[in-house]
Design brief:
Number of helices: 5
CATH class: Mainly Beta
Shape: globular
CATH superfamily: Electron Transport, Fmn-binding Protein, Chain A
Strand content: 25-35%
Structural class: alpha+beta
Distance between the termini: 39 Å
Largest sheet: 7 strands, antiparallel
Number of strands: 7
Helix content: 25-40%
CATH architecture: Roll
Order of helices and strands: HEEEEHEEHHHE
CATH topology: Pnp Oxidase, Chain A
């Protein structure tokens, strides 16, 4: 069974609710909404993420390297990161395998609400002390993207260039 097949059934409906609340202006804790252009359609595809900061850099973690949003982010290399009504255009730089473990090791400390999601997909230890190393061991299966703010983003086709909200 692939990692994508292990995703809980409730995930897609819950993601839709979270995205709707966020886009409606309700910022939910550490959650952000990441929109990336689809590989084939070019239309923005949106998913909730929980960025974490390690060493002064922001990162987002894909629970499966085969998830559609991860594949889209790899192909596009950019996205729109939103928190409530505030959004910014960002560059998404996937970390090579050897650089993922230190970031994943921090995930259970920085995003404790995300642990349960990973427990649904992977057999993680129940002991809190063992979680950082268990997450680090997921490096070959999880995508990790460094999130970099774009200083001079291109205007979005779906929004006029003069808009105050243009990322």
């Amino acid at each position: 069974m692939s990692d994508v097949e292990k995703l809980p059934r409730w995930l897609k409906p819950m993601n839709r609710v979270i995205v709707a609340l966020q886009l409606g202006g309700l910022a939910l804790g550490t959650m952000r909404v990441l929109s990336v252009p689809g590989r084939k359609s070019g239309e923005l595809r949106t998913t909730p993420v929980s960025p974490l900061v390690v060493g002064g850099q922001r990162y987002v973690v894909g629970g499966s390297g085969q998830a559609d949003w991860v594949k889209n982010a790899r192909a596009a290399g950019w996205g729109i990161l939103a928190h409530g009504r505030k959004e910014e255009r960002v560059r998404l730089v996937e970390l090579p395998l050897e650089e993922r473990a230190p970031i994943l090791r921090e995930f259970p400390k920085k995003v404790p609400g995300g642990i349960q999601f990973f427990r649904q997909m992977y057999e993680l230890p129940k002991e809190k002390k063992a979680l950082p190393e268990a997450f680090a061991a997921l490096a070959p299966r999880c995508a990790v993207f460094r999130v970099e703010r774009e200083e001079h983003p291109e205007p979005r086709a779906d929004r006029p260039a003069a808009s105050a909200n243009a990322p």
